[in-house]
Specification:
Strand order of the largest sheet: 9-8-7-6-10-11-12
Distance between the termini: 26 Å
Shape: globular
Strand content: 15-25%
Number of strands: 12
Bound molecules: NADPH dihydro-nicotinamide-adenine-dinucleotide phosphate
Helix content: 40-55%
Largest sheet: 7 strands, mixed
Structural class: alpha/beta
Radius of gyration: 21 Å
């Protein structure tokens, strides 16, 4: 049996009931096959793949907190420090009821390659909890965040592990966590990114993932003879990534006609009104029905969960589709609908939103496909820029950070394009991303010996 297949079987055997983790490993290992086979003896001797798929450290802890009725609640929490070969662990904290160890491991594993692709010195990690901030009072969210950080602070630091936001962890949660870290550790350091501007945050961090997604998409289209200007775009999600993807797409001259959340989706024939969307989602923290109620060109459709069922936005005719909600939200049938409607490009704002079968179908049918670990790397790249600013105790201007972000995203695209060409898989950006991300990490792991 080939080394790649052996290691994949080992992952399934040793990590039962973690389907998302298996899926992420399978996708990466499959596209590394040609690279691994070219150097199989050395990689096998050093157990490089076994080390790559095994986190350096996994932390599991309980988070007790008191709700507004005086009742004690207990949540499960995780931090997976996956790989530090090229820098301190870096990756977000997800707060969502669906969070479990397998989900955090899939996200942490993906993060290794994503962080490598940015060209910046950051390793891979991820964390979170099954706590649901939705419907909680500010005091309850603070109580959870403080209890969470009371345990987590022992394992993180500006030069060891620097968490950030993700689903459910926005500016409010990062603020409460940062305050508790500072209080316990007594140091004012850049231990979290996504901080508020008044206490060490970076301009553009809020917009970074969505903006970066569009910079990469624009470059991918340009290099394939298309212009983003004038294109019709469908977006899923209506959180941080989706909102700023929508904003940048419109700034670049495209028309975005859909957004969604976990209960439904909007079709807006006039193009999404980003100011209204921000008011509904960032200020009121309300459902999309409020958007539809305030805008006559918008139609609201009650939808199913994005997980496993598809959200309906993929049935809308478009040129470009940007899944920006959650994992496994774009399924094979959705891919078929996109192809039938003439979609030319899909770029993932979320992590692993497209299933392996859907990805293959899109690629086989000539749709340009940019995987999340490249397309959404703008968030973590700007987090790394926040770390740099914190280290030098300086704040760069919006234009400076935005310019660096754009450069990074354009470079990422060319790295994957070049890697795919080098290994005779021209246009396969999934393979290109995995190969380019892997080679740097593998080199560093080899150079650092058996650790
Ligand atoms: P937010 O919490 O801000 O928004 C998430 C959006 O997706 C919301 O509209 C939410 O709807 C929807 N959603 C989440 N889970 C589900 C679900 N199970 N079913 C249906 N809809 C769902 O998160 P972000 O925008 O930050 O993150 C979105 C994706 O992008 C995630 O995959 C994340 O890992 C990835 N990502 C985020 C980065 C960042 O910088 N924020 C960086 C790189 C990747 P509702 O409000 O109804 O729950």
């Amino acid at each position: 049996m080939s080394y790649v297949d052996e290691v994949f079987n080992l992952v399934v055997e040793k990590n039962p009931a973690q389907p998302e983790f298996h899926q992420a490993v399978k996708e990466v290992l499959e596209s590394l096959r040609v690279v691994i086979e070219a150097n199989e003896e050395a990689y096998r001797r050093d157990a490089l793949l076994e080390r790559l798929v095994t986190p350096e450290r996994q932390l599991l802890f309980r988070v007790p907190w008191v709700d507004d009725k005086g009742q004690v609640q207990v949540n499960n929490a995780f931090r997976v420090q996956f790989n530090s070969a090229i820098g301190p662990y870096k990756g977000g904290l997800r707060l969502h009821p669906s969070v479990n160890l397998g989900i955090i491991k899939f996200l942490g594993f993906e993060q290794i390659f994503k962080n490598s692709l940015t060209g910046l010195p950051i390793g891979g990690g991820k964390g979170g909890s099954d706590f649901d901030p939705k419907g909680k009072s500010d005091r309850e969210v603070m109580a959870f965040c403080q209890s969470f950080m009371t345990e987590l602070n022992k394992y993180i630091g500006a030069d060891t592990d620097v968490p950030a936001g993700d689903i459910g962890t926005g500016a409010r949660e990062i603020g409460y966590m940062y305050g508790q870290y500072k209080r316990i550790r007594g140091v004012y350091e850049g231990v979290l990114t996504g901080k508020g501007l008044s206490y060490g945050g970076s301009l553009v961090r809020t917009e970074a993932t969505g903006y970066g997604l569009l910079y990469l998409t624009e470059e991918m289209l340009k290099c394939n003879g298309h212009d983003i200007k004038g294109k019709t775009v469908v977006i899923s999600g209506s959180g941080n990534v989706a909102i700023y993807a929508c904003q940048k797409a419109q700034q670049l001259g495209a028309k975005v006609v859909t957004v969604s959340d976990s209960t439904g989706w909007i079709y807006d024939s006039e193009g999404i009104d980003v100011v209204l969307l921000k008011e509904v989602k960032e200020v009121k923290r309300a459902r999309l029905t409020e958007y539809a109620a305030a805008r006559s060109s918008a139609v609201y459709h009650e939808g199913k969960s994005a997980e496993g069922a598809g959200s309906g936005v993929w049935s809308v005719k478009c040129d470009v589709a940007l899944p920006c909600a959650t994992q496994n939200e774009l399924l094979l049938d959705d891919a078929k609908a996109l192809v039938a409607n003439g979609c030319i490009a899909v770029a993932e704002g979320a992590n692993m939103p497209t299933t392996i079968e859907a990805t293959q179908y899109l690629q086989e049918n000539g749709v340009l496909f940019a995987p999340g670990k490249a397309a959404n790397a703008g968030g973590v790249a700007t987090s790394a820029l926040e770390m740099s600013q914190n280290s030098e105790r300086l704040s760069w201007t919006f234009e400076e950070v935005d310019g660096k972000l754009k450069n990074i995203m354009v470079n990422i695209f060319h790295n994957l394009d070049d890697a795919a060409k080098k290994y005779n898989m021209e246009g396969n950006y999934v393979a290109g991303a995995n190969i380019a991300g892997f080679l740097k990490v593998a080199d560093a792991m080899t150079a650092q010996g058996i650790v």
